[in-house]
Protein 1
Amino acid sequence: MAEKMDAKLDYNQKKEEVVVDANRKLRIGIIGCGWIADSHIDSYKRMPDVEIVAGCDLIPGKAAAFFKKNGVEGVKTDYASHKEMLDDESLQLDAVSICTYNRQHAEPAIYALNKGVHVMLEKPFTVTIEEAAEVMKAEKASGKVLSIGFQPRLDPNMQMIKKIVDSGELGQIYYIQTGGGRRRGIPTPFGTSFIEDKTAGLGALADIGCYSLDMVLNAIGYPKPLTVTGYKSDFFGKDPNYVGYGAHHEYADLFGVDDFAAAFVRLEGGIILDFRIA
Ligand SMILES: NC(=O)c1ccc[n+]([C@@H]2O[C@H](COP(=O)([O-])OP(=O)(O)OC[C@H]3O[C@@H](n4cnc5c(N)ncnc54)[C@H](O)[C@@H]3O)[C@@H](O)[C@H]2O)c1
């Protein structure tokens, strides 16, 4: 089978060449200057056709400190919210990175799209299905690009998996297992925004489960789900005796999301998707 696959699939395919016009810079703003915003700014700094012009955070002074720490000067940060920043027409923003906690994904995304600005929105897309529908409506009406932080889609391994699926070598796919688990305990090294309901809204299910689901669904072309039986629980996060990586006893009281989730999904085309995440 390996020989047959090699004949059809080029494992050493060259990367597509991207033509960059450094004279036409994209004007970028960053909404939410916490942990993941560091990765966004690292990437933007390496792009010759990008200029970071603004940033904001709900916590006063956090955006200014963030740009200072990252060595980026001349960025406007005197905004109390994403609204103030997006209302500032002098910025002439082309796009924003939305790096806020999950409960603050939909609102800034809709606001930015309504302002005619492209959006790079962190995963998970939204916390509720209603929010998801509203964001998609705003995207369609704006004609702008909305991209979600599903970087594994661009990983060469994932692209190869998609290619293998597309090549038909696997035959008819009728059963998929996906999911996984993190073994570093309650995710609190940078604060509690991942475990509190008011900021995260969802726990392991959305935080890392969304990658597992997106990776397989993207590989097989996103067939429509027909039925879903789901389950989630919080035994581990609610256990006051648990002290793990960065976690303390008092986090058990704050813990308002799931730490385990499972689902049995029937997809169009007779496919069963068996999912669990912890
Ligand atoms: N793609 C990835 O690999 C990856 C990795 C880690 C986190 N994330 C995602 O990134 C998001 C943020 O995670 P984090 O670890 O950076 O969280 P964080 O809590 O460290 O930072 C979020 C920041 O957003 C700010 N904020 C919230 N609402 C705001 C608003 N309306 N306007 C301005 N600022 C606002 C908060 O004050 C906070 O400083 C989460 O949704 C998470 O799932 C993605």
Note: The longest strand covers residues 225-233.
Protein 2
Amino acid sequence: MKVNSFNPVAKAYSQTVAPYRFSQFLTLVHELRLKGSEKVLDIGNGPGELSMQIVQRLNAGGFLYGIDLSPKMIQLARETASKSGYSNTHFRLGDALNMEFEDNTFDIVVSSNAFPWVPNRNRFLQEVLRVLKPGGRFGLVALSNKCYKEFAEAFKKITKENPGLFPNGKPFELMGAKLHSLLELKKLVSKNGFMIDKYFQLSTEEPIKADEYLRRVNAIVNENYLDYLGNNGHRQKIRNQVLQALQNKNGNLKITESSVFILAQKSKVN
Ligand SMILES: C[S@@+](CC[C@H](N)C(=O)[O-])C[C@H]1O[C@@H](n2cnc3c(N)ncnc32)[C@H](O)[C@@H]1O
């Protein structure tokens, strides 16, 4: 299995990004209206914060599985679960595109912000459908195409100053992530055989300093957007330009976290 790009940033992600996503996790958990006895799968669990929000609402009959491509993320999630004293969790290395679970296993599948990074989104959704029981529910959270729009704007600016530097000025897409709009994602989920119960977008804006902004972005992408520049002085120059482009907003820089939520169901008839 290929160790994905989140492995080197697992710790930084858990400290710098995940804490800012709590409103997303709580929103998803609220929408799930758990009874407590469900068998739940969290795909791309990362450091495990969403998983913890779910497992603390489960009773002895419930169980939470998490899979992630990154061994470090799995380790962090296991540590968090054991520190919190939750034994009805099981985190293991696994690929969303090829899951080692039987058909019709889970009452609920959730996935928060892993979806943009998987190379084959139809296959991901087909795998979710396969492992869900008939009538099982799916809660998907995915970074929207409005997320970190300030960062994308900074990229546009420096692409103008350095023509051809970043092919389409879209930093996340340069690294293979695909950020969807709400309607695009709803259409994709529905096309893959799910019945849609609810869909909405949640955006939060907060003030932040430019270097903290870059720190947070880099905890997701590890500066991979600069990789094809090599490791020379040019890379450092472009990094500074990104920082400057972010700073040019009179110190009033805002960070926009924005995610799409889709609540869907597998048909009751298999
Ligand atoms: C942005 S992090 C999100 C982590 C966590 N769910 C959260 O919302 O904070 C994306 C996670 O998805 C995992 N991931 C990416 N592609 C995956 C795949 N094909 N199968 C399983 N996990 C994957 C990464 O390793 C990473 O931990």
Note: The mean pLDDT is 88.
Protein 3
Amino acid sequence: MHACPHCGKPAITVLRKTFLGPGVPVDCQSCGKPVRVTYPAWMKAAFPGAAVMVGALLFDSELLMYAASLAGLGLMIGLHLLWVPLVKDR
Ligand SMILES: [Zn+2]
């Protein structure tokens, strides 16, 4: 769970946060106020995983390509959860 910047209580589930992109506010499930993630933070967290996924295209082996793509996706989601803070939408 991720703490709400308005009320400090759990705002959204990990699953919800995983699919939360910039510019799309969601309502805190504790206080109902809108929270969102910022574009710069989202980009910073998405970049390493995206770079790994692009790098995966360079492998000759299909198996390695799929493995690296999955690793990149995992990295993207992991960094998103760790690095991207929730902020007040208004
Ligand atoms: Zn709240």
Note: The helical segments are 14-18, 39-56, 62-83.
Protein 4
Amino acid sequence: MPLVTLKEILEDADRRGYAVGSFNMVSFGFLNGILEAAEEEKSPVILSIAEVHLPHMDIEQFAPVAIDSAKKSRVPVALHLDHGFHFDIVIKAIKWGFSSVMFDGSALSYEKNVENTSLLSKIVKAAGLSIEAELGRVGGSESGETNEADEKFFTDPELAEDFVKKTNIDALAVAVGNAHGFYRKKPKLDFDRIKKIKESCKVPLVLHGGSGISDEDFIMAIRMGISKINFFTGMTYAAVQRIKEFIKTDPKGYEWIALEAKNAIKEVVQDRMRVFGSSGRG
Ligand SMILES: [Zn+2]
């Protein structure tokens, strides 16, 4: 199947009321685990690489393999730049062959966020890619450190309408009680706010910080208008737990550690796809 854009993959999810998982990769084990899960679940999937992880990977080596694997896959796959903060990185994603990007101007003033997002929106769309942007600010760090949401940075539904109109983006990341990394206390999502944002701006909405949100809350968030869910920390946690268990039961079986980690990632991704309702939609 060809690589698809974020817009294409989210259109069906938005119309039929499920969410597509966006799973971050930091090694080939992630790529294989996530794609195997998607194929077994017959689920569309978004493979993501975050700008903060680029210094730890050889993207010139990784991107062609990810694209080739996506094209050989039997399910729709998008290759997405997650949290692009810098213009040069977002532009490079076009060259690397990504099918979509996220520009994160959430730390900027509203006017500057609109200005930068609009400009990049024009450029990446002219190159045939989709674009996601963020309004409000999702708490925590993209590299997976513990943190929590702050209500003063929650997305304003009226501003969201204006933002989407001015920037012409394909998906909007919202701050509604979600945060990156491990949650210090149980997250409390503002479902009413999700509903209002969805009513005001219509584009598919994105929930970042998916590790630690309960299944019931995911289902409710999807019902209120979320169509893309970012998930990373839960995969790394599952891989580490599996390796610990494995070492305990087979202290000499080091050659299988990477495979065990990949299988743990695959299982947690499959489980999320079932909760997000994307299983069987690919
Ligand atoms: Zn994020």
Note: The chain has a mean pLDDT of 94.
